[in-house]
Amino acid sequence: MSAKNTQDPLDFEVQTMAFRRLLVAVDEDDSTSSIRAFNYAVTLAKSYHVPLAVVTILETSDLNIYDSLSPDVLANRREEVLAKVNRYAQKAKDFGVVEVSSLIGEGKPGKVIVNQVVPEWRPDLLIVGSETKEKGRLFIGSQASYMAQNAPCSVIVVRASDQYEA
Length: 166
Prior knowledge:
The chain is α/β, with parallel strands linked by helices. The protein has a single domain (22-159), classed as HUPs (Rossmann fold, 3-Layer(aba) Sandwich), CATH 3.40.50.620. The protein contains 5 helices and 5 strands. It has a 5-stranded parallel beta sheet, with helices on both faces. The termini are far apart.
């Protein structure tokens, strides 16, 4: 005879859970979902008093072959993307987040964030937006599913709008 496991699976004490490092992904087109994800991230970072990193990915596949081979064009695009992510970082600081970092990468947003940015920054929470109306375009919102399934940390997906908004 085998002994039955009589331990109640709900026999535990609730413990406080808090995140210590946050990463928010914003797309370079400033979609509604990116802005909402950013707003949520800065609110959380400020209330938890934790570091926040803002990341944007330069999608090199959006460049034509000639532009992608031109060092000047690529350098200009990198500067534009960095300027944009720095504007987000400044907004977070103005809101009251004390420690804010700006990060950029190049390639497919989901893969770059999961395989490069997350291992380097080591957040325990990744916050991403998800656009539901513009399915024909590839930007960070459309990569939310990939990141949620593959990131080694917790992921919160923020929608462009709430279906049940009053």
